[in-house]
Amino acid sequence: MKKIIFLAAITLMLFSCKTSSITEKKLDRNSQVALKGNWVISSVTYPGSEYIKVNSFQLADSKCFEGSTWKFVSNNNKGNMALTKYDCPAFSSPITWFINANGEFILKILDAGEKARKVRDGYVLHIANQTESSFQLIDKINVGGKATDVVYQFQRAN
């Protein structure tokens, strides 16, 4: 009888524990559908901290992202991005992404042929000022113990 009670207690504890994620899984489908298509980053700014150097997405200097091209496919949350700026490293990669109900833009940069579920590292940015022709992704970084925004301004490509 003691074994049954002990097993029941262990089972109850296991099923009552819930793993939590740092990101909300419920999707904001309207915001996602609005991003469908081709985009270009027109500017990268750091409001209040214009004299810092930022390595964006562990790929290149943030200013190298100006002029980069991004394609978002909303029905399967895939796409691709490419850095094309002169004097910057050339880089192109498939991506997976989604926007959750909290207004967070979750991004994973993949290697060619790599499955998103195998990639453990990703980026959580905030989406803001979304219109039909533009939107911003805002990354929070720590500069000298102070939270600073990095604002990526996207414009719809023709």
UniProtKB/TrEMBL annotation:
<feature type="signal peptide">
    <location>
        <begin position="1"/>
        <end position="21"/>
    </location>
</feature>
<keyword id="KW-0732">Signal</keyword>
<protein>
    <submittedName>
        <fullName>Lipocalin-like domain-containing protein</fullName>
    </submittedName>
</protein>
